[in-house]
Design goal:
InterPro entries: Uncharacterised_YxcD
Strand order of the largest sheet: 1-6-5
Number of helices: 2
Structural class: alpha+beta
Number of domains: 1
Organism: Paenibacillus beijingensis
Pfam family, one: DUF2653
Protein name: DUF2653 domain-containing protein
Amino acid sequence: MRIYTDEIINAICLNIADRKGVSPSDVEAQLSWDEEYGFTAEVWVQGRSQYLVEANLLEAIEQYMYKQYGKRVFRSQITLDADEDFWADIAE
């Protein structure tokens, strides 16, 4: 299974909203990749910025897959990749 940028961002927003006790619509996220840090996301909640590392992104995707699709996946099953778009391949 593969999910793309929009669903990855939804996963991050839902995860952060749950952690911070705010509505998912109050969370904004922007994905990025660079050689030094790998996959990261900058997240804004109520005017405050925070950076998430790849482990945080994988955790958000794990929870999203369980809550939205009823599938229990582990970090070892998720592979992030990007070119002009971001995606996550999830091994069955």
